[in-house]
Amino acid sequence: MAVNSIGGEPWVAHFGHPGQWALDLPPQSLPEMFAQAAGTFGSRPLVDFLGRRFTYAQLHAEATAFAAGLQRLGVKKGDRIGLYLPNVPIYVSAYFGAAMAGATLVNFSPLYTAPELAAQVEDSGARILVTLDSTALLPTALQVQHNSSLETLIVGSLAAMLPLTKRILLKLLGRKALSPIPAASGVMRWEDCLAASAPVPVALNPQVDLALLQYTGGTTGTPKGAMLTHQNITANARQVAALDPRAGERDMIMGVLPLFHVFANVSVLNRTVINGGCIAMLPRFDAGQALKTLQRVRATAFPGVPTMYQALLDHPRAAKTDFSTLRICISGGAPLPLPLKQRFEQLSGARLVEGYGLTETSGVVSCNPYEGEERPGTIGQPLPSTRVRLLHRDDPMRDAAEGEPGELAIQGPQVMQGYWRRPDAAATAFAEREDGRWLRTGDVATIDAEGYLAIVDRIKDMISVGGFKVFPSQVEAVLEEHPAIKEVLVIGVPDAYLGEVPRAFVTLDAGASATPEELRDWVNARLGKHERVDRVVIRATMPKTMIGKLDRKALREELAAQ
Predict the structure, then answer these.
(1) Cis amide bond preceding 516, omega within 30
(2) Mean pLDDT of the 255-282 span
(3) CA dihedral 299, 304, 306, 311 (to 10 degrees)
(4) Does residue 14 belong to any structural domain of this protein?
């Protein structure tokens, strides 16, 4: 049986863990959340960075000193502070310290080019940018500062955060890895920004004051800054933490997802702070290093994207890695192919569950249960205190017909306030219904009687074949069953007669062999007539986004350029 609403009229149902659907989420700011954790878990390690550990008390003290340092620089409530950092310990101190000063944080990807960074600095109005003295970051940050309204760069030392042995090695290789910090106006070292005095307390209204401007990935257009309040973020972290039936047990989470991305921001950083756990933090994802770290720290959890799990399976170290402490892996960012899930679970012995979220929802909307019944191929059940419904695809003021797919819409404490300086975009992002504002996701979904959601496809990705609607994900799911195929993307290409036809782009598993014609004939024999692909193109690599998921937009742009 399928339904089209959860948690709202006319279909009211409570799903998920018993008694957890309606979660008590009193207003809470990021500084309050961090102070509470530091007071409770002060001597515990919060970060393990390549073998060096930093406690809750240490990082809270550094965040407090950074807040005072920002106030000394004239930062006021509501000013925007940018973080242009990989996963390093000062990310934690800068993140919570800026919040203590009343500032609004802006995450910038370390993979941005100077023009991309400059555009978001200008759009956000960031006054200060925190970065690192690496050759990959500092030259770009300096270039942006010289050509924007950015007032101050605060530069952290990578060497200062490393264990002693790695610090010595970095010094030997420093000319290649590190960029000298110039003695220039508007450039400060991290340690020089830490003030000895206590910061002036800033009154925050968690439900109103913005904690974070999180820019969308731009896969459907120009990136927009989702306005997330303190309550949006802390509520979502508490919702995610409530999913774990073994909360309170040893908690060592792999921090390989980039913290500048909303998935890791909530599901790695803030969720771990609430639990009193430790983050085994890596500056970037490398399969070999991730496997080595997982075994060294005896990790219990590993959130990632499907391409990460595939990379782990492909690495020669995987068969020799001890996964015995790993309990749960959460996949997000892209659909999780069933063969990949099965292979990874067989190798690791851990459960790999699929979840779903958006920048606009602070991170997470739904997830399969960590224990008990899961339904592979779905994105699980809505998080506690989250309401979902399916809207008619042509009229968001109406619900989809019962049992039919519709556009997934969401209400909950994690839903953004709107888009920064883009009231036009915000107006179309929400459906104003009699029972309030519903965030429109742009994803076509179904809901079964037990509340499990399944994403059929994105509305904007649908292919119109002679008037028939084809969902790329359904064609991709069939291709993923072929034993030679590793990755697949299906997009629509122009056709003089039908308007559009599906075309598949694939990579092959190591050692596998197949011709494009063989793959085309194989998949078309398993598809409806209007779903059949005109070609299968075998590629050496696929374009990927900054967090490693397959990038359909980049593939389209690549083909358009050709």
Answers:
(1) no
(2) 96
(3) -50
(4) yes
